[in-house]
Amino acid sequence: MLRLVWEFFKVGIFAVGGGMATIPFLYELGEKFGYFSSEELLDMIAVSESTPGAIGINMSTYAGINAYGFWGGILATISLITGPVIIILLIARAMDKFKSSKIVKDAFVTLRPATAGLILGAMSSVLLATLFNIEAFRASMNIFSLIKPIPVIIFAVFLTVLLKFKKINPIFIIIAGAILGIVLGL
Asked: pTM, whole model, 2 decimals?
């Protein structure tokens, strides 16, 4: 259980930018230690984006409960938030003294692109997992099994266009996606 606590503590410390910035770290955690599969992570991302709560909190609780039961969930969640809370308290204390410092301003300027890169990497991982079925391809080595059903891709493009140009409330799109997935068995 100590490894679980340590790994989620590291995710909390290094995932600057929160939410989506934690996804690359969570992918690595799932692959390296088997606390959850990439499919479970994608499911949790979908749930986290449609419910209150941060992806990191939801995944740490889920992984902790899966690995060690109730107390594993509690400890993994606490370990995820402990580092950032300490960092925020230290920054808040020091900000008054150093907010006009060139070094502090430069540090924040550098953190923005790093965070954007983490989020972009996470977004590409989710996009690839949504559009391509890597496991089916590995099992069959048939190129046609690589691409997920064409309707899924068409639906994703259609929803992207709706969101971009029609300004439809995303909640309706989430509900429509869930209903369509249930009806079509996707």
From this structure: 0.54
